[in-house]
Give the backbone structure.
Amino acid sequence: MADLEKMLQDASSEIQACNTQNELNEKKAFYLGKKSPLNEIMKQMATLSIEGKKELGQKVNAFKTKIEELVVVRRKELEQIAINEKLMSETIDVTMPGKVLNTGSIHPLNKVIDELNTIFIGMGYNVAEGPEVEIDKYNFEMLNVPVGHPARDMQDSFYITEETLLRTQTSSVQVRTLLEAKGKPIKIVCPGRVYRRDDDDATHSHQFMQIEGLVVDENITLSDLKGTLQKVMEKMFGSDRKIRFRPSFFPFTEPSVEVDVSCFKCGGKGCPICKKSGWIEILGAGMVHPNVLEMAGYDSTKMRGFAFGIGVERVTMLRYGIDDIRNFYIDDVRFLNQFKKGE
């Protein structure tokens, strides 16, 4: 019995001295395993009386229970010590600089479209969208572009079937909106991607972005168009910008004009950007042709309107000094990273 009590004292000290889970497991196996000193004590049972055997059995069971309890307590202590050490080693130093996340940036074309949309929404316009795969009727016929017009040629447009093609302008969205409005006034801008068969070079692309505008109501005049575009150009290129109209031709407007803005680089004095003219051609516009209104169900003797089309790539190239339209579509990270600043 004295040996059992002495062994319990030793076991208690040794278990408490264990610093790792492996050491603890080894110590448990030493005192409770098949080759433990406890087995030597158990061999004495053969020489004991019934009462002695009973007493020794109780002592042995109590010893085993106590060892198990000591191991459980020390195991929890070691686990807590490990947790505390991990917490200390992973403590965040709030004075250290934070990690910079590589989040990318908004594409420059989308930046300009978002800005133009914001300007027009502030002027009371709604943003309208439509399908990029369009029917010939909406893309050409109802825009006063009759059968046989050169723009319908397969060399100019991407036809899918004889009646469907990739839209060549977002004017088709204007047609759809006019038909849905059923003769009521409308005021919309239509941003989106359009497609035309063209050579891919520094200034041309087979696909590009447009944002077109359309206003139809009573008593709409050319001066309303000029006032609208004047405000838009001031917002985009500076409050001292001026615009001018030059006569032009578009099948869906009459009269039609090309719109120039005074050069934002030289202030109209003449520089390489404006080709020494002081003016930059920026978009096409005009009063909606009566035929377009009549085909959409409007009374052209009472309702009038104006329309304009802005090439987003052209505006973006002028604004950011980009000299090659292909940069917008090649996904070169070196090019795109330049537009992170200021976001």
Summary: The radius of gyration is 42 Å.
